[in-house]
Amino acid sequence: MASVHESLYFNPMMTNGVVHANIFGIKDWVTPYKIAVLALLHEMSTTKPMALLDRRRLNKLILPLQQGPDLTLEQFLKIVEECCLRMVNAVKHRLFLMADGELQDMEHFFTILPNAFSDSEAFKTSVVGLFMRQMLLAYNKLSFSQVYKLYKSLQQYCHRVQPELSALPTEDMELTSNEDPSAEHIDKDELDTASLHQSELRSDESQGPLSQKQAEYFLARQAYLLKNDENKAMSPAKLQDELNNILKFNPDFAEAHYLSYLNSIRVQDIYISTHSLLHYFDRLILSGGEGKSNGDEGYGRSLRYAVLNLATLHCRFGHYQQADLALQEAIRIAQEANDHVCLQHCLSWLYTLEQMKGSDSVVLTEDSVKIAAHFCLPYLASLGIQSLVQQGAKQGMPANKLLDALRGTDIMHWKQSLSELIEISLAQTTSIWRMYGKSTMARQQAQLLLNMNSLEPVNFSVQQNNTEAFAVALCHLAELHAEQGLYAVVSDIMKHLKQQFPPHTQHAKLWMLCDLKIQFEKAMNDGKYHLAEPHVTAISALNSTEGLYRKAQLLKALNQTTEASQILQQLQQQCEKSKDIEMTIRVMLASAELHWDSSGFATALPLLLQALALSRQHNLQSLTSETLLHLAFTQLMLGIPEQALVLVQDVLESVLAHGSLIDKGRALLLAARCQMALAGAAVQEHRLTALEQAVHTLDEAAVYFSQLDCKERMRDIHYLQARLHHTLGNISQRNKCSMLFRLLDQELPSSGMTVVSHL
Amino acid sequence: HVTSYSCVPLLRSGDVGMTSEFGDLVQIKKQLISITAQCKERGLVHSVKWASELAFSLDPLPLNEIPPAPELTEEDARDLDALCLAKSYFDLKEYDRAAYFLRGCRSQKAYFLYMYSRYLSGEKKKDDETVDSLGPLEKGQVRNEALRELRVELSKKHSAGELDGFALYLYGVVLRKLDLLKEAVEIFVAATHALPLHWGSWLELCNLITNIEMLKSLSLPECWVRDFFMAHMFTELQMIKEALQKYQSLMEAGFAKSTYIISQIAVAYHNIRDIDQALYLFNELREQDPFRIENMDTFSNLLYVRSMKPELSYLAHNLVEIDKYRVETCCVIGNYYSLRSQHEKAALYFQRALKLNPRCLGAWTLMGHEYMEMKNTSAAIQAYRHAIEVNKRDYRAWYGLGQTYEILKMPFYSLYYYRKAHQLRPNDSRMLVALGECYEKLSQQVEAKKCYWRAYSVGDVERMALLKLAKLHEQLNEFDDAAQCYIIYIQDIFSCGEQLEHAEVSTALRYLGQYYFKNKLYDEASLCAQRCCDYNDAREEGKALLRQISAVREQGEPSSTDLSVPCVFNPLSNNTTPVRRVSPLDLSSVTP
């Protein structure tokens, strides 16, 4: 029974069991819409005197009209109307002349069409000329019945708008006219379902088939947008619908499968993405085999890259074992085929995979760079160098070497216009400077990246700005601004990041972590520990080490020293394993602070000295000054304020230049306390000046703290100031300070020993 | 709506077909005769064929039992001439003309024929147009223009409750063609309720049901046709055991002579690869119905699997004589050439089959196999992909793709395809063994072991899974497990009786002999060694082992105390002895 309803058609495009979609090389065919465009072109070339502005607008219109999907007549006329009112009437007139007349009128149009172009500015090889000639060719190839069919559809096309211009553009007249009288009889829900199907059908109708040209253009555009600015591309669901539509009309259109793969990666759908990827390569393998002159090469090549792509897919979804297996397979096939370029790609993925798995891959990377350089693959070579620099920076390679390496590759990037790598390089420099604690340099590099004009051609008025490099630079900027207490700016940057990298995208984790860190810091500075707590959990989800560190900090602040020290010990072990120097030093500092809490100042000293040695060795300036401040504080507490003051004064310069607001304030506060301690020991006449100096230093510190709105510190400062003024005998000043202190003290939960025991 | 259709002519004539038992074959026969007449009047040729085939298998009725033609209503009488004329045009495939003369008719019969002509006219035009569509991308866009109008009109009538069983069927077909599958299922169910004897509705329903849950959720009419439907459905859903049971009970109920049932059972046996049974049934079928072309491609597949060249050649020549432009004939010829290793010609014939019907699933897959034989992997991939496009559930095509990539030495890549195939046939050992082999190539021994074991547990067709599992265990130095597998393997091979080609029994025996010897179970070891001597390739080793055993026995050391002897002959047993010797030495060296 079923076979009656199956179409028993003979497919003329099938040879050798393979359906060739394009046996005649036809990429485009005549549709009523194309006739409308042709009519427009015709009118444009025949009406000679035309306002320059109108002409310019129309000329700009031609390309999108030619490449875009078929529009309804109404949409088409509306677009043209916006450019030139007079033209609309001419085009409309010509179209309706054809539609209302006879078939002969359409034939006539196609005969006079070339005449109009023969002596106009549209050259035969121009876009317009090619389009026109293609259309003529396609028209001339039509058989008798096809010409008639075309004419019928032209009539339908024109008359669909005519009776009621305000009607929905894609309204199907037959269907509605049939449906309307029956509407009274059909009960409510029946009607609903009926109209639902209609809309389904209609949406199906409106999308229509794209010609191969149009489909190619569509794919190219969407792929470009996906790569460069995802927000401007179609929404995933809609894009998938379009792709399914294209594939329904031409299942052999392999590129559509690839776009479907990209699209489903976007929504993290492993199932469809794997399916599409494999389907794409299955199809590609065929088209590769088609070109016999290419021999086996094209075919085998796509096989290798198929596996490699599968590996990257698994990598992307974090299936490291699967990725590893796929990669090994790719390497094996590439080796058998002696394809060094593919091998090189595999190698670079191999070290990336190793890195993602968290194991050491320096040797692999070095090999990769060497071989890439040997085979003249600049992209892969400098990608490898950048990866090496990153690893080197983490493991404490000397700064000059790192920056030299980056500069060396930069020269090559500019020579070869590898804009993607330039961006990465800038972002990396930003990160490195930031790590070394040179905030000005970091800020400058980040700005350089953000203000740079991309070297890539700008297509579809979209410039690429969604790479990881941009995300990294923006995150650094946000953190730098947060350090200076400019939270309004930070929230602006965050807003931009959220917009540019929506939460489901690949690089969204970067800004999420950054945002959380900033909020955590802010809550800690404000003393709102209950606000900081949820952030810790969120941070742990994104980065477990960082989460642990923050948790320790929070526990320390909440005076749960035992738990904090346990976590810190655990962290220390982790860091030693992963050789994360920055975190190691931070952990040491935090442990030292814990010793302070139990008044073990002497026991903190070796830890701090170790930290100092480490941070100096790795040129981590901000951490060095931080450690020095810690050391100074310890010395102060151990009763050697002279030494402490010398230390503080040593680092004060760099802290004021590069440090964050809170660091600046803390350094000055510490300096003031040293001065006070010294003043206590000094002789009477020196004592007053020393005390006044201390008051002055405290004032400076107060400025920084008040900028941050750091109330706890402000309370300490007011307390100290009141004491100083009391000693100096400035009663009014003293009273003022003590009043401020009292106000803050009432506001904050009291913790008796704060002034003494922290930096 | 269902109740409103209960007044169809069939039920009015007294043959209420509500008995699920087949007690009254006479009644069934009457029903069949009457439905045949009705379908004939409406041009539903395939349903006519099915019903009359079934009727033919039952005993003929005496004259007074033959049901009278249903009475004509007033409307029928008025439309009689127009209907007659239109039917003649319809039979001549002049559908538009038929529809034109039926446009004013009021009777149900005329209305159905009117709509059906319009539908078929649309289909015909669509097929004609596909050949000269405007452009390549448009080829999928060519559609039956009449469908939408038909749907609107039919839905109007449907909501008014004016459709009879045939019209409902047509409505369902229209919906299915418009890809409104959910609605189509509803309508087909309604159609089966209205007119349970119309096989076409059941068949359409069958094409729309994708899984057993969906089948269970439908409320189907209680009628004997339902059993035929269920049996067919089980076959489609690969639930062969259930299908066979159903068909068996149908045979016992009195349809034993039906060629339809015989062919269905044969196909079912083919699906579970019970080749002998299937071959037997097909031979019987050909005896009863020598000019049958349907299902002969399946028959040829069986002959191919058994490499029965003369039979296949006879079948092919016979079919060519009957009708050489049938898809089935082309497939049979393709198989014939393939068996003769003339793969180019085979591919050519499969292509011809596809030209006759591009949606012929089997041909795409078979063509893929041919290209594989010709080492044209890219064309093979293309063919398999086409097969999948036609039917996503074609496990053979997925399996073929997996094989292709495995041949291209991409085991990881082929895993995906094998997994797909396995998903579709979870209880087919071939996919599992293929999966296991891939895992083994990727050195994922744990997964490989699981696959092989599972393959064995679901009933290993090729009897290779255990052997592979044993070898894997051997590689991993899991001697006990390996021995266990070999034992089951040998038991399996001997219990199944027939002599299999691959002489891997000797491997198993050899290993077991050594294993027993190592564990000092000399009786068992000598037994194995003796059996080894039956096989050419293991004879020498068997004899050597026997000598070894007798040597050990001569030394008079029956069991585990012996430590010194084996190391000369058997490298495997070295594992145990040295350790025991060394450890006391070590201790003594430490103590002083």
From TrEMBL, chain A:
One of its GO terms (cellular component) is spindle. Pathway: Protein modification; protein ubiquitination. Residues 30-159 form the Anaphase-promoting complex subunit 5 N-terminal domain. InterPro entries: Apc5, Apc5_dom, Apc5_N, TPR-like_helical_dom_sf. Keywords: Cell cycle, Cell division, Cytoplasm, Cytoskeleton, Mitosis, Nucleus, Phosphoprotein, Repeat, TPR repeat, Ubl conjugation pathway. Residues 257-356, 595-651 form the Anaphase-promoting complex subunit domain. GO terms for biological process: anaphase-promoting complex-dependent catabolic process; cell division; positive regulation of mitotic metaphase/anaphase transition; protein K11-linked ubiquitination. Pfam families: ANAPC5, Apc5_N. The keyword Iron-sulfur does not apply. Belongs to the APC5 family. Component of the anaphase promoting complex/cyclosome (APC/C), a cell cycle-regulated E3 ubiquitin ligase that controls progression through mitosis and the G1 phase of the cell cycle. The APC/C complex acts by mediating ubiquitination and subsequent degradation of target proteins: it mainly mediates the formation of 'Lys-11'-linked polyubiquitin chains and, to a lower extent, the formation of 'Lys-48'- and 'Lys-63'-linked polyubiquitin chains. The APC/C complex catalyzes assembly of branched 'Lys-11'-/'Lys-48'-linked branched ubiquitin chains on target proteins. This is Anaphase-promoting complex subunit 5.
Automatic annotation (TrEMBL), chain B:
PANTHER family: CELL DIVISION CYCLE 16,23,27, CELL DIVISION CYCLE PROTEIN 23 HOMOLOG. Belongs to the APC8/CDC23 family. TPR repeats lie at residues 327-360, 361-394. Residues 27-266 form the Cdc23 domain. The keyword Protease does not apply. GO terms for cellular component: anaphase-promoting complex. GO terms for biological process: anaphase-promoting complex-dependent catabolic process; cell division; positive regulation of mitotic metaphase/anaphase transition; protein ubiquitination. SMART domains: TPR (SM00028). Pathway: Protein modification; protein ubiquitination. This is Cyclosome subunit 8. Keywords: Cell cycle, Cell division, Mitosis, Repeat, TPR repeat, Ubl conjugation pathway. Pfam families: ANAPC8, TPR_11, TPR_8. PROSITE patterns: TPR. The keyword Cell division applies. It comes from Cyprinus carpio carpio.
